[in-house]
Amino acid sequence: MARGGTRPGAGRPKGSVNNKHTELRQLLLSHAEPMLQKLVIMAKEGDLQALKLCIDKIMPSMKPVDTPVQVAVNDNDSLTQKASAVLAMMMAGELSTADANQLLAGITTLARIIEFDEMDKRLTELEKMASMTANKAN
To answer: What single-letter DSSP state applies at residue 24?
Structure first.
């Protein structure tokens, strides 16, 4: 048999349900209310693990949120000027290196998009000129 090939009966088909898991889930669900009540009682009595479980379910851990960053640039500034402003803020300690890296990556992506748009326009004009030259030749 070739490497990476499949053979008949090689595992459970995609999307099939594990009946054992379904049975266990049903059993747990039938006892869920008394188990939760016991968990709350244990947490109230000072069981730290029970308390952590309760808190994690009530209030999941908070994910870090990026705060907005204001960079003093004008819309008509060049991308080089904008990148220089970001670097100046970072060097002055007004901006973290992580935030500066993200902003510079955004400026770099914007530069690539602008470059692609300009090349597309130039190519379109060249194609028009080539078709006009071909029409004049005919």
So the answer is: H
What would the mean pLDDT of 107-115 be, rounded to a whole number?
96
Name, in order, each residue with C-beta under 8 angstroms of 137's C-beta and a sequence gap of 6 or more: none
Between 18 and 113, the higher pLDDT residue: 113
Q: How many residues does the chain have?
A: 138
Q: Are residues 95 and 132 in the same domain?
A: yes
Place of tokens 């952590």: 52
**Which of 116, 84, 118 lies closest to 103, judged by CA?**
84
Q: Strand (E) positions, 3-120?
A: none
Q: Do 97 and 90 contact (CB within 8 A), yes or no?
A: yes
* In a domain? residue 104: yes
Residue 115 structural domain: 79-137
pLDDT bucket at 89, cuts 50 / 70 / 90: very high
